[in-house]
C-alpha cells in the first residue's frame, strides 16, 4: 500500500520546528492548537518515528526529526513551486470561504465583491453558517478559509476586529413585565448560549418568543414586535435602524461582551494567501459608525403589561 505525505502536516511540522511551540505554530498557521497536534501525530504515525521530544516546559526535535527537517523543507519548496506553476496554467482556482452568520454584513459583502474583482482568476465561493459549523468544515477541509466570531477568552486565528453587540426591539413591542420575550438563532448558536448564560447570571427571567432561521429572519421578527433580539451592531442597515431601537436603554438587560472576529485558513498556495491577506486587511480597515442612543427610534410606544 502506497503512503502519501500530507502537505498540511508537513507545513505544521515545519512551523513547530521553527517556533519550538505548538501554540505559536497554531497562531502562525491560523488553526487550532489541537489541529496542529493532530497533524503532527498523523505525520509521526505515517513515518513510524517521533519527530519531537516533549517535556512539560519545552519541545525540541528528535534525532529523526532533525534528519526529516531538511527533507520537509525541500518538499515544501517543491510543492509551492508546483502550485505556482499550476496557478499560471489554470484559468480558475476555487477558494471556499465559510463565514459566520453573525459576521456577514453589507460592508463585508462589498469587500468580498471587491476582492472577487481584484482576484478574477480565483473562483471565490462563500457559505454562511454558525461559527461552530464553519470551524468544523475548515478542520475537515471542506472549506479553505473561515471567518468567525470568537469569545474573548479563546485564542488562535488571525484577529481582524471586534464585534460589538446590542439588544434591539421594535418600539411597538408589548410584553409581560416578568419575562423578557427573547429572539435568537438556532439552539447550537454560540451567541444564544452566551445570552442565556448572561440572563441566568443577571437573574433575568425570559422565554423563547421566537427562535431559529437566519439573521434576516430574526431581524424581521424583532421588527414585527415579537421580542428583543441580541445582534451585532454591524448586522443592521440604516433602514433597519428606523424600525428598531436599543432596548437596553429602557429595559434592564445585561451588557453583552464584545467578541473577536478572526480568520483561520487551510491555504498553501501563494495566490490564495495573497487574496486572504488583502481580504483580512480590508476587514481590519472597516469602520463601523453606529448612531448615538438619542438617534434611535423613540421607545415611547414600548409597553409592559
Report on the architecture of this protein:
The chain has 305 residues and is α/β, with parallel strands linked by helices. 41% of the residues lie in helices and 22% in strands. The chain contains ten helices and 14 strands. The strands form five sheets. The chain has a five-stranded mixed β-sheet with strand order 4-3-5-13-6. The protein has a three-stranded antiparallel β-sheet with strand order 11-7-12, covered by helices on one side. Helix 7 links the parallel strand 9 and strand 10. Helix 1 packs across helix 2 and helix 1 crosses helix 3. The longest helix has 27 residues. The radius of gyration is 23 Å and the shape is elongated.
In brief, what are we looking at here?
It contains ten helices and 14 strands. The protein has helices spanning 7-19, 22-29, 33-47, 63-89, 106-118, 131-139, 190-201, 215-223, 238-241, 270-284; strands spanning 52-54, 59-61, 93-100, 122-129, 145-150, 158-163, 165-169, 174-175, 180-184, 206-211, 229-232, 245-246, 259-265, 303-304.
Through-space gap between termini: 73 Å
Roughly what fraction of the amino acids lie in strands?
Answer: 15-25%
Shape field? elongated
Strand order of the biggest β-sheet: 4-3-5-13-6
Instruction: Please tally the β strands and state the result.
Output: 14
Give the count of helical stretches: 10
C-alpha Rg (nearest Å): 23 Å
Which structural category fits the helices and strands?
alpha/beta
Give the biggest sheet. Answer: 5 strands, mixed
The helicity comes to 40-55%
Q: Unreliable runs, pLDDT <50, ≥5 residues?
A: 288-305
* Average pLDDT number: 83
Order of helices and strands: HHHEEHEHEHEEEEEHEHEHEEHE
Amino acid at each position: 500500500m502506497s503512503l502519501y505525505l500530507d502537505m498540511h502536516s508537513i507545513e505544521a511540522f515545519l512551523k513547530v520546528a521553527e517556533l519550538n511551540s505548538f501554540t505559536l505554530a497554531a497562531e502562525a498557521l491560523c488553526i487550532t492548537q489541537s489541529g496542529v497536534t493532530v497533524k503532527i501525530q498523523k505525520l509521526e504515525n505515517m513515518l513510524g518515528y517521533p519527530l519531537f521530544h516533549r517535556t512539560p516546559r519545552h519541545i525540541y526535535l528528535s534525532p529523526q526529526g532533525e534528519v526529516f527537517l531538511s527533507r520537509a523543507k525541500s518538499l515544501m519548496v517543491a510543492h509551492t513551486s508546483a502550485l505556482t506553476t499550476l496557478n499560471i496554467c489554470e484559468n480558475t482556482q476555487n477558494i471556499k470561504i465559510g463565514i459566520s452568520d453573525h459576521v456577514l454584513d453589507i460592508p463585508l459583502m462589498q469587500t468580498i465583491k471587491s476582492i472577487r474583482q481584484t482576484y478574477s482568476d480565483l473562483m471565490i465561493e462563500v457559505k454562511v453558517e454558525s461559527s461552530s459549523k464553519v470551524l468544523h468544515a475548515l478542520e475537515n477541509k471542506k472549506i479553505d478559509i473561515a471567518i468567525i466570531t470568537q469569545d474573548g477568552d479563546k485564542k488562535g486565528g488571525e484577529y481582524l476586529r471586534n464585534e460589538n453587540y446590542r439588544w434591539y426591539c421594535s418600539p411597538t413591542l408589548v410584553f409581560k413585565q416578568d419575562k423578557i420575550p427573547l429572539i435568537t438563532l438556532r439552539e447550537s448558536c454560540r451567541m444564544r448560549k452566551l445570552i442565556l448564560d448572561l440572563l441566568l447570571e443577571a437573574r433575568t427571567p425570559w422565554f423563547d418568543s421566537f427562535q431559529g432561521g437566519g439573521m434576516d429572519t430574526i431581524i424581521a421578527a424583532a421588527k414585527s414586535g415579537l421580542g428583543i433580539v441580541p445582534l451585532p451592531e454591524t448586522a443592521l442597515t440604516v433602514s433597519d435602524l428606523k424600525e428598531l431601537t436599543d432596548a437596553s436603554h429602557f429595559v434592564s438587560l445585561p451588557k453583552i461582551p464584545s467578541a473577536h472576529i478572526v480568520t483561520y485558513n487551510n491555504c498553501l498556495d501563494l495566490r490564495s494567501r495573497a487574496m486572504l491577506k488583502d481580504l483580512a486587511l480590508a476587514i481590519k480597515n472597516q469602520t463601523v459608525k453606529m448612531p448615538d442612543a438619542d438617534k434611535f427610534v423613540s421607545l415611547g410606544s414600548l409597553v409592559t403589561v
